[in-house]
Amino acid sequence: MQNPIFSAHGVTKVYHAGEIEVFALRGVDLELYEGEIAVLLGPSGSGKSTLLNIMGGLDCATAGEVHFRDQDLTTFSERQFTRFRRDHVGFVFQFYNLIPSLTAWENVALVTEISSNPMKPEEALEMVGLKDRLTHFPAQLSGGEQQRVAIARAIAKRPEVMLCDEPTGALDSKTGILVLRLLVDLKNQLGKTILIITHNVAIADVADRVIHLRSGEIVSVNTNEHPTPPEDITW
Ligand code: ADP
């Protein structure tokens, strides 16, 4: 029996754009299990980022419940959300979100300084293969290297969960495969639970489970008994 680390029930999100109501999520039920890689697949606008943001405590559901272990996120105060994000979740975004005026080491240190049990920034950067780039600024790094700094920043605080929104979306396929390899290694070596958003069907092959979202609803969840190594996928 697998242990759910996250469970969402009836999660609905309605955005108000002037007079118009946009139903980004329509009653989503989803569990995320410890130590799995789940890929959330769906066309643009299907609600993927909204769901990831709600699970990560960056946004609130309009209705429904989201549990992280035995805690109900929907009852959290701002202060509890801040602590939850700081202690439990590592985020990786498509465009890296590094601070341009800080070096790779400083970008990671920014997070480790406020974490309770962090790695040293150089340790996290070594894990992503960047121990020779500590003093480089983002502009002096390739896209793939910048994304690896972002992953180092996410893992440095030792989160149980990594929430990755289109982590390879801005990368060429060769570099994207390196980044996927890193995420698979984090699962295999450190037992992280990883949720990856993509609209790229090929990436789904590396997942243990593939969740299809369309128009704010989960249309299918497929278990992949034999995930493909990132090196063997083509896109
Ligand atoms: P995806 O990540 O699958 O591309 P999103 O979760 O970003 O989809 O968006 C789902 C829907 O919600 C889209 O129709 C989008 O336009 C709408 N939406 C997302 N964020 C907002 C917002 N802050 N205000 C209004 N509508 C939003």
Notes on the structure:
The chain contains six helices and ten strands. It is of the alpha/beta class. The strands form two sheets. The protein has a six-stranded mixed sheet, sandwiched between helices. A four-stranded antiparallel sheet has the order 2-1-4-5, with helices on one face. A hairpin with a 2-residue loop joins β4 and β5. α5 runs parallel beside α6. The radius of gyration is 17 Å and the shape is globular. The model has no long low-confidence stretch (mean pLDDT 95). It binds adenosine-5'-diphosphate (ADP). Adenosine-5'-diphosphate (ADP) binds next to β1, β2 and α1.
Structural class by SSE content: alpha/beta
Cα gyration radius (Å): 17 Å
What is the count of DSSP helices, taking H or I runs of 4+ residues? 6
**Tally of strands:** 10
**Unreliable residue stretches:** none
Distance between the termini: 34 Å
The kinds of small molecule bound in this structure are: adenosine-5'-diphosphate
Order of helices and strands: EEEHEEHEHHHEHEEE
The pLDDT mean sits at 95
- Strand order of the biggest β-sheet: 6-7-8-3-9-10
How much of the polypeptide forms β-strand, as a percent range?
A: 25-35%
Q: How would you sum up the global shape?
A: globular
Main sheet attributes: strand count, strand direction, barrel closure? 6 strands, mixed
The proportion of residues forming helix, as a percent range, comes to 25-40%
